[in-house]
């Protein structure tokens, strides 16, 4: 992902407090229990997810309900630990500049110390999000998209859900 995209994301997160959440758009695509999960997300993640959805909707005349819900909930696992912008920035920069250090810091080991949380959340949020969706009996396809949205696409290019995953990843990367 380009540095300019990351800078835009950081600025959006910093000014998220002044941007209204289009809850009606989320309600259109999410069940009541899914919407409750969406509302647990931090404001910057909600705004990001809504932007991902808008990107998908602008791409094609039809976006499947499953893909729309995945756009809104792909980062729901981050609701487990709300972080400041500087913490997110630290984990992104570490992953890009010192991947072996990121790998070491992102391993989940019992109680998380505040300084390790951003690394673990960045690494584990897809699995946590999938678990949260399993707990509300979400559709298997939605769960799969959330669980694998951060994986390299090449890992899943032959999977039946690959076309939806490719669209989700592209929209996520654009936002």
UniProtKB/TrEMBL annotation:
Domain of life: Bacteria
Residue ranges constituting the HD domain according to the UniProt record: 48-172
Annotated InterPro entries: HD_domain
Name used for this protein in its record: HD domain-containing protein
Species annotation: Phototrophicus methaneseepsis
